[in-house]
Design a protein that fits this description.
By secondary structure, the protein is α/β, with parallel strands linked by helices. It has 17 helices and 11 strands. It folds into 2 domains: 113 residues, no CATH class; 303 residues, Rossmann fold, CATH 3.40.50.
Length: 444
């Protein structure tokens, strides 16, 4: 009798979860859903992956507000697994978290969610969220936020970034290149856009592991200075510079770019750094860059920008859905890039112009970032055991999730990767720039 009652209870739990998921993730669907007991709801389209739910209480935790954060934490904990491409499931997640759809179905979905079974998580989240203090984008807080992201260790990043250790969008001429080739092409493209010449002084704001300053010195004969706030990046870059015998050409400093002195440079570059600046501090960022650059010098600003419509203010029900129910951005702010903020390109360039720069070229490379992220994810997945050994299971799952979701954002144009070339003209408006950009693409 007791065994029969237990079986009925288990059947009820399974049915409740299957029914809820059928509402939340409706057909047509390109993946199977398999529960902890082996029961499967099959896809009605050609199957490319399987969503595996690990325990009866997992779905209850996954779909508790804020949805973005709790879905992410459920994956980090192992409440569910995606067998196949994690990137491909984000189209469905985007549909699930569509604000208009949620608004229509919220009352009935809430009632159905309340009937889902409970249990305790099977595993803790080993990567704890950073605890920040002080004013947002103060020097001390910015350093703590950056250290949090990079303190997972150079050994972890080296498994999938490639030998150049470049952690920004690569550049693909055919789309078939491996990550190292594509990163070399990106570094060279930036050098060409800057029109680097031997002996010029070049500053890299947020130089990472030194990939750009080393490339520019080796291939263009410049004197390069890089600054970073991450101690592990600084140690790696300094060692690599010594190993390559570039101490007389390249210097990497552990410091905030805001603390640079009165020296001016012929060229400036910032690659994947200004996303951490924050919109309210963007005028200060460009003012510092303008001060650090000689007249006629150029500044290439490379980074992620938000799709304009994604940055527009929401009000009323839409704002509540985005902020409270969906919690857009909460996962990234808590576990990836604390205090990071994406700004629309027109706002970025407007602030650059207000600082005195003239915008001379803008290129959107968002498809290139999708290709980059897919190679990073594939590389990380191939080194899963090693990644867990040098960090932990949660860190591996966190980066797999974050980079997969980012690939989807670039695929769907929710995020852009832009390179903007800015020039510092003289008081009469002269720039000394060539009339065309043909030299950027000449064979070398």
């Amino acid at each position: 009798m007791a065994d029969t009652a237990l079986h009925v209870a288990q059947v009820d739990e399974t049915s409740a979860v299957h029914d809820f998921l059928a509402r939340v993730i409706p057909a047509p669907r390109r993946f199977d859903i398999r529960l902890w007991d082996g029961s499967v709801t099959h896809a009605n389209l050609p199957t490319t992956m399987t969503l595996h739910i690990a325990s009866p209480g997992a779905v209850r935790r996954m779909f508790y507000p804020p949805l973005e954060l709790n879905l992410a934490e459920a994956y980090m904990r192992g409440d569910f697994e995606v067998e196949g491409s994690l990137i491909d499931i984000f189209g469905t997640v985007g549909e699930v978290m569509s604000a208009p759809r949620l608004a229509r179905q919220l009352p009935s979905l809430t009632a159905q969610w309340a009937r889902l079974p409970h249990d305790s998580p099977g595993r803790d989240i080993e990567r704890k969220a950073v605890q920040l203090s002080g004013g947002v984008h103060s020097k001390e807080r910015d350093k703590a936020a950056l250290q949090y992201h990079y303190d997972v260790g150079n050994d972890f990043y080296a498994l999938w970034l490639g030998p150049r250790m470049v952690y920004t969008c690569a550049y693909f001429k055919t789309g078939a290149e491996d990550i190292d080739t594509a990163q070399g092409q990106k570094l060279d493209l930036i050098c060409r856009k800057l029109r680097l010449r031997p002996g010029e002084r070049v500053l890299d704001i947020g130089c990472g592991w030194g990939g750009f300053v080393i490339h520019a010195a080796q291939h263009y004969g410049v004197q390069a200075v890089g600054v970073t706030l991450a101690e592990r990046q600084h140690a790696f870059a300094s060692q690599r510079i010594r190993e390559l015998g570039l101490q007389d050409q390249v210097e990497v400093c552990l410091m905030d770019y805001r603390d640079l002195g009165a020296e001016q440079f012929d060229k400036l570059v910032s690659i994947g750094m200004f996303e951490a600046v924050g919109k309210s501090h963007m005028p200060e960022y460009f003012a510092h860059a303008f001060r650090l650059l000689k007249t006629y010098g150029v500044f290439l600003n490379h980074g992620i920008t938000a799709y304009r419509l994604e940055t527009q203010a929401r009000h009323g029900l839409r704002k509540w859905l985005d902020d409270v129910l969906i919690g857009a951005g909460k996962f990234g702010n808590k576990y990836i890039f604390p205090d990071g903020e994406l700004v629309a390109l027109n706002d970025v360039n407007r602030m650059a112009e207000a600082a005195g720069f003239e915008v001379r070229d803008v290129e959107n490379l968002r498809e290139h970032y999708s290709l980059t992220l897919r190679r990073w994810v594939t590389g990380l997945e191939a080194k899963r055991a090693e990644a867990i050994a040098v960090s932990n299971e949660t860190t591996y799952r966190t980066w797999r999730l974050y980079m997969s979701s980012a690939a989807y954002e670039f695929d769907t144009a929710r995020q852009h990767l832009t390179q903007t070339l800015l020039v510092k003209p003289d008081p009469n408006g002269r720039t000394c720039l060539p009339l065309t950009r043909e030299d950027w693409y000449e064979s070398r």
